[in-house]
Amino acid sequence: MDKSLTARLQRFTAARFSPGEAFGLHLTLGVLALLLAMAGFARIAGAVVDGSPITEVDLRLAAWLHTHAHASDGLRTFLLGVTHLHSTPGVMALTAVAAYWLYRRGARDWMLTLLVTVPGGMLLNVAMKHTFERARPHFDEPILTLTTYSFPSGHSVAATLLYGLLACYFTRHARSWGARAAIITAACAMIALVAGSRLYLGAHYLSDVLAGMAEGCAWLAICVTGTATFRRRRAWREGRNQLHDT
């Protein structure tokens, strides 16, 4: 291989793993996260379409949870509150509050990212539901009666986008690895709580919520990485213009 070509490839590779580059480490990690999330979603979707063993797990788990949900009034009431809070109106209200808070803190780039990420991801989920057209779990005495499609779970997508983006913001400003770990754990716990509420109340199958989380991670990777790249590129151009002016 030509030495000059080898040198260019080495510089290109080094730049992709450099934290300070406009198209550096953040972009590499974002693309990796996107590819992993897309692969996970494709694997789950393929299994559902083909009727793989996960669909049998879906049915058994849904039946077991439905039986327990009718036997536990307190937990059922709590999870109904969780699921209603993260319905479309609830998530839009939470997003508006979070966006206002980010605006007051001067984090306008993050505010705009939030306003694109959450509603955009929810619209994407509607398109995905109409692509797969999977019926929801059916019970003789349902806790929730819904007429929309089941796959992927919209609540899981919305929770992944909202709490995932807030986790990205807070981890960026955290001062220690311990604080970052706590933030990520809290975000994952909230996402799991919302997804679990949909399972427990019989609104979704396990594969629905897993696919919803994978879909949310993919869209989140696109939005956060794209915004970060744009912000770094803008800072690089401003720095270059200032250097040129001097």
UniProtKB/TrEMBL annotation:
<dbReference type="InterPro" id="IPR000326">
    <property type="entry name" value="PAP2/HPO"/>
</dbReference>
<keyword id="KW-0472">Membrane</keyword>
<feature type="transmembrane region" description="Helical">
    <location>
        <begin position="85"/>
        <end position="103"/>
    </location>
</feature>
<keyword id="KW-1133">Transmembrane helix</keyword>
<feature type="domain" description="Phosphatidic acid phosphatase type 2/haloperoxidase">
    <location>
        <begin position="110"/>
        <end position="224"/>
    </location>
</feature>
<feature type="transmembrane region" description="Helical">
    <location>
        <begin position="110"/>
        <end position="128"/>
    </location>
</feature>
<feature type="transmembrane region" description="Helical">
    <location>
        <begin position="21"/>
        <end position="42"/>
    </location>
</feature>
<protein>
    <submittedName>
        <fullName>Phosphatase PAP2 family protein</fullName>
    </submittedName>
</protein>
<feature type="transmembrane region" description="Helical">
    <location>
        <begin position="148"/>
        <end position="170"/>
    </location>
</feature>
<dbReference type="InterPro" id="IPR036938">
    <property type="entry name" value="PAP2/HPO_sf"/>
</dbReference>
<dbReference type="Pfam" id="PF01569">
    <property type="entry name" value="PAP2"/>
</dbReference>
<keyword id="KW-0812">Transmembrane</keyword>
<feature type="transmembrane region" description="Helical">
    <location>
        <begin position="182"/>
        <end position="203"/>
    </location>
</feature>
<feature type="transmembrane region" description="Helical">
    <location>
        <begin position="209"/>
        <end position="230"/>
    </location>
</feature>
